[in-house]
Design goal:
By secondary structure, this protein is of the alpha/beta class. Helix content is 41%, strand content 11%. The strands form four sheets. The protein has a six-stranded mixed beta sheet with strand order 5-4-6-2-7-8, sandwiched between helices. Strands 1-10 form a two-stranded antiparallel sheet. Strands 3-9 form a two-stranded parallel ribbon. The chain is globular. About 1% of the residues have low confidence. It is found in: Cell membrane.
Amino acid sequence: MPAARFLPRVPPRAVVLAALVLLLWTVVGATWFLRTYLGLVTPDQVLYHLQNGGMDYADPRMLWRACRCLLAVLALTVLSLVLLSRMKRWHGRLLLALLGTGAVVSVNATVSDPCQPEPDGGDYLARHYVDPGQVALQAPAERPDVLVVFVESLDEGYTRPREPHAALLPRLTRMQDDFQTLGELRNLSGASWTVGGMFSALCGLPLQPVGLMSHNSLEYSRRFFENGQCLTDLLAGRGWDISFYGGASLKFAGKGRFLEDHHVARRFGAEQWQQRGVRVPTAGWGLLDSDLVELAWADMQRPRKAGEARMSLLLTVDTHGPSGAHDRGCVADAVVDEDDDESADVMREALRCTDRVVAQLVERFIGNRDGRPKVVWIMGDHLNPEPLLNGELLPEAHGRTVFHALARYDAQGHALPADDLQREFTHVDVLPTLAEAIGLRWSSQPHRLGLGTSLLADPSHATLAERDGMAIVNGRLSCRSPLYERLWMKA
């Protein structure tokens, strides 16, 4: 006799009720988790990570926190079902209504969709996009070596502590004073996570999920801006050898595929360091900054071909949210379990460590008098979603901005004169600014590439943020774009 005949028959209504309660608690739990560890997110950010995967290569501590959140959701679901079974029908309906209301409120407090379509329904991106692959570029006679450092979640506000003796970025703050700053670097929603920030700066337009709801979804997810051109493509096509050094896995959120598809010939992440015999911490996001910088600098000293110019990209990890990481390369007596420490203390430690090792790398790079011009660009990849230390910082007059600094040196190692600017710009303006800083010139649409405007041009060449205002730019560029879909994948 089949065993199923001895199992109690569950009424369909009870199954539907259990599924509904589980769904509502899942929505509450998932949004609470996102809000707690990532801050306010956009639908694009969530959909992009779902499409590109790699969560199994994230910080194991975050995954463990997610598991604990799931266990809490299951426990609350069981508790709710027990209560519902003992309540009068109208009391049960009231409980379900309260739970549904809580789910709606939690979603609204966690997910923000900034899309504001053009009044005429047009494609804002298409109206302003200058395709880097369609302009005639001329490289300089002396091609500089280029160092670009993306510092994880680095707000400009960290350079302005309320108490000067409690500086969080003492070396980078001094370096910023010696270098050139360009004004206020603001965060677009499509540049509000690591790969989005890198992509927007190097490719000149915000990152969006593509084809997620189409029958070609899998094919789209295997491509990365295949029909578009980024700064790395432009430089590689003109003789630069390009390398990327990161501590986290290249498999996370499509980062490795982005770099590979856009001519970054040498790519190092957690797995590549392990293959070289480097011990990568099992906890956290990967190889920490003190080791990462030393290994990157050693690799940057490898022999080169005659006349070869190089571009080196580096992405740090120590200051990743929600509270940063202990780095034993900076703090010899760091404790083993940082969950036992105050989160603010860990973040202070992480900021000071990253500050020291990044400044040291930059000093080595510009101090290497090898007869080649040099360009240095340092920036936060995006704003810290949930800054722990706001109370210790002076408020930014016009809202939070991203840390950045630019320096250029001639072949004799002399810094080229440059004044600080007072511009308002976004990640998309980094592409043409860096292109001009490196010495690239183009006649068609001068000073403009992608959606950006070079900040080294005359101020009469306004950025989109200066011309239309941040609210409009962010709203228009957060909407779906047919041109963007065509740029993502070749027909």
